[in-house]
Amino acid sequence: MSDAPLFTALATSSRQLYSLLRCIAFNPQAVVSITPDGLRFTTEEVHAVQASTLLDKLLFSSYLLSDQDATIPPFRINIIALLETLQIFGISDSASSHKAPSGGITSSYAAAFHTPALGLGGTCKITYSRFGAPLCITIEENGVKTTCDMNTYNLPNMYDADENEIPLDRNALVMKIIMPAFSLHDAISELASTSSETLVVSASSIHAPYFALEGHGGPFGDSTVDFAPASTMDGLSTARRVQPAATETFSIAAPSGSGGRVKERYKFDLIKKAGRAMALASKVSFRMDRQGVLSLQFMVEQPEVTANATTAYGGPGGFSFIDYRFVPLVGEDNDDDHGDDEDETYQQDEEDEAIAE
């Protein structure tokens, strides 16, 4: 019988791992799934908000499973402790927050003289020897080696990651919008200044406001960020269709009853949990289904990964993805949150094509 560990991975830097995991660390407890495509981490809060990211195998110089056909049961770890371990040699906010104007991590001559930036030449090794064993993190840099054995916690035998995720019905989407992540980050930051309790997402391709985010219930009153329209999307019997200038893709397919407008309410404090992902990403994809479940999928540039590779998401390499899902508020003012118009159309897009188009 082989004594080889179930899983071993080696990364030449812990910076990319730290940056991605930090974006979903709003809850200390994270579920880890080891798959042939990479390490998936998922956090949630009262099943009202859920975040996940895949540390794609392309982020590692070596990624080995002792049995490619074996299924490794998921387990739970303390993601805060993991982040502390990954930054043991000084990764800090200053090192992980430098990004290009369009988003994504990039190098900076100013950051090159910071101690964290100088420490990117080390290695990070992750080992999982057997089910129930600790997750072993070994970080080595300039001849200094630090090893941390993190306790893992078994999940119920009947635990199913797919069944425990907040469901998004991709066959019944009423909204799909792709836009620069900094535009969303700026809008949420502006609305947060009024201490709003509720975020209202409103969109229509035929009636103004075409795309708006509204903050309601704050002590300083309500506020709205209205994304200005650009031009008509096409000229075939859709002259009224208008696309907001900030968006790259704008598709609204409201169900019958509200004159072509999609409108839904969410708890603002939950939306703010995605703030770090908004600041780090280059693009974001909004998707909302008929039940009001909202998916914000963030694309994060990874210049260290070859663009010729193919990620586990089916898109080009050089990118990682962070997915947030939110459950809508129910009750007052929701009677007309969804609507349909005979002119509205929807073309189904697979999750892998949400951003990497």
UniProtKB/TrEMBL annotation:
Keywords per UniProt: DNA damage, DNA repair, Hydrolase, Nucleus
Species in which this protein is naturally found: Lithohypha guttulata
Any one GO molecular-function label of the UniProt entry: double-stranded DNA 3'-5' DNA exonuclease activity
Enzyme Commission number: 3.1.11.2
Annotated localization: Nucleus
Superkingdom assignment: Eukaryota
GO cellular component: checkpoint clamp complex
Name of protein: Checkpoint clamp complex protein Rad1
Protein family according to the UniProt entry: Belongs to the rad1 family.
Gene Ontology terms: biological process: DNA damage checkpoint signaling; DNA repair
Predominant location category: nucleus
Region span, Disordered: 330-357
Compositional bias (Acidic residues): 332-357
PANTHER family xref list: CELL CYCLE CHECKPOINT PROTEIN RAD1 (PTHR10870:SF0)
